[in-house]
Amino acid sequence: MPDLGHDLIFGSFLTPRSADPGAVVGLARLSEEVGLDVVTFQDHPYQPAFLDTWTLLSWVAASTERIHVAGNVLNLPLRQPAVLARSVASLDLLSGGRVALGIGAGAFWEAVEAMGGQRLTPGQGVTALEEALTIIRGIWDVDAHGSLRVDGTHHRVRGAKRGPAPAHDVPVWVGAYKPRMLRLVGRAADGWLPSLGYIQPHEVAAANRVIDDAAHEAGRRPDDVRRMLNVMGGDLRPGSGPSTGAGLKGNPADWVEELLPLAVEDGVSAFVLGSDDPTTLRVFAEEVAPALREAVAAERGPAHDAGRTPRGRAPRALELRTPGLDYDAVPASLAARAVEPGDREYARVRSTYVWQGSPAIVLRPTDAGQVADALAYARSQDVPLSIRSGGHGISGRSTNDGGVVVDLGALDGVEVLDRARRLVRIGAGARWGDVAEALRPHGLAISSGDYGDVGVGGLVTAGGIGLLARSYGLTVDHVVGAEAVLTDGQVVRVDAENHPDLFWALRGAGGNMAVVTSVDVEAAELGDVVLAVTVQDVSATAAFLRDWGALVEASPRQLTPFLTIFRDGDDGPPVAQTLHVWAGDDVEAAVRAIEPFLAVAPVLQQRAQLVPYAAVVAAHHGRHAGQAAMRSRSAFLDHLDATTAEAVASIVRDPDQRMVQVRSVGGAVNDVPADATAYAHRHQQFCVSAVQPRGRRTAADAVWDRLAANGSYLSFESDDWADALPRIFPGATLERLRQVKAEYDPDELLRLNVPIPPAR
């Protein structure tokens, strides 16, 4: 068969001897150190001379940072598939997406029976493996409706709950030799993983034909299945003689000469070395692997590269692609991680928390240089461009239909640069809950929204109304610098001395000006906080809002209340939940400040606790599948006086408003001059917001229009952008932003984040 065009990967295949556990772990670490892509281990649970492979995989994943881990191959008869699915997903989540599932139908049946497993015939083993793969993938498919039911002959689940989903699209590699197993590989696997010795080089072509035929019959392409090979018993010493078929010998050049035909003629794109010798592993990684990559590239030639589809992986179904988008022009730096319709990962990346999207392609850069490549590609395509940091924003701007999405999720580092100055550098793709957890051991915190799954980039360029706002201020008020990629591809440092006009604009309107890849933020000295949660019957909604607002304004700055009002069923009274966050561990002072709130309406529930700030905004890393076609509205309020409280109460009474939220934006927020940042709302005390059906006016819209005349918040406005623009950026702020836009994005590449027209 011809070369399938996959990028070459190289790995190690180690013996998990229990006599010296540290030795095999050391070889795994060496595999990462010398640059191998994956480390794999035999799996023989009945063998007391071996460590348990799954335990070893977990230990190695925790002991390394980059290399992927896999069984080679896991023994299905002794590993229950539903539990195995959750084990793989859990380790993939814990390792940051570094797990592959190598699995086999089983062998050594007497030993399997001795351990309590069931002896199967070869045909039964194939059936059992196919049932297991259905269960495993079903457990991972959290987007499917309902519980999982598979009524197999050997493996069954009857109403199993789905999840968790792995961190990435875990490839399933199957060890197979006989025709029925090879046909299963073609139908259902992502990779074929035999061992040289059990199969001879001249037999690979015939096995490939069986896989290809089965793939075609299943509606797949042959290149959906990566061809892999365990190279066993290798010896890389000069003069060791020619290959025996069971293992390659000779110097590195001899290895390259023997492996090259397997790559370019038989489509093998993964070579995994079975050796426990450190020198051999090092030479394989540092000499054989690069030489073989170079030789394969030379055989492929530029014509082959020009004809390859994005990512150097299997081409996707052409009918799913967006006409007019040049998929072949995706930059090489981004191709391997790009996702397009037809990829199994597409469902995971297409939508945001609220909005369903259908982008033509999702690019996932890992550094600022790749972000620049992504912007260059987007400039060359006449389609919408969305930038995504976390995808949780209710405005829905981080996805689109038929366009390019640049997902910054891989830029998620959190580093304390200077503890004395409380200076922290945060990647734009980090989640604020993870930031809080990373800062907790240092006794630091950053006020950053009210939910831990919110991405850093979206919030830190819009404002950052958080649960410490009255004591800390907005998140943007403490940003002292940023790394940003300009729309012309320049990667620049932005701060008070470098590009000061852009630095001003990034703090409040950043999504319109450049792509921020990291920010430097001054954190607050903060350990534990007091968190009190009260739930109250607010049938007298207007009176409650008036009294609640007066208490907020009279409270010490350490207290930041956050209110959500929703209806208890269709006919039930409105119910208010308030999160009271006291910035500090003075419990007595917190109680004195919070107790008056209990008197403004009947209390249905209450609780209070002293917790780390990280516990208040813990990240859940939920998958985003879009919820409904909703739009969001917002308004800044000077006070919740009687008139304003009645207006908000009328919104609560509108059945189209699913919930109404009121955030505190006084205190330290208003210490900052209105012209210091592009967020100019510095005299109001509250920000009220709600979501409502998209595409039609509601009874509350007239009230919203009246309230919003005092200002609206960028992150809570999802459409009607032309009308919202002067409310979000009032007067002189908008005129200054238009000047900055004209300098840094005159062609309006970044136009989906409440578009600001450049000054002409």
From TrEMBL:
It comes from the Bacteria. InterPro entries: BBE, FAD-bd_PCMH, FAD-bd_PCMH-like_sf, FAD-bd_PCMH_sub1, FAD-bd_PCMH_sub2, FAD-linked_Oxidoreductase, Luciferase-like_dom, Luciferase-like_sf. Keywords: FAD, Flavoprotein, Oxidoreductase. One of its GO terms (molecular function) is FAD binding. Its cofactor is FAD. Coiled coil: none annotated. It holds the Pfam family BBE. Residues 355-526 form the FAD-binding PCMH-type domain. Belongs to the oxygen-dependent FAD-linked oxidoreductase family. This is FAD-linked oxidase. The lineage of its organism: Bacteria, Bacillati, Actinomycetota, Actinomycetes, Micrococcales.
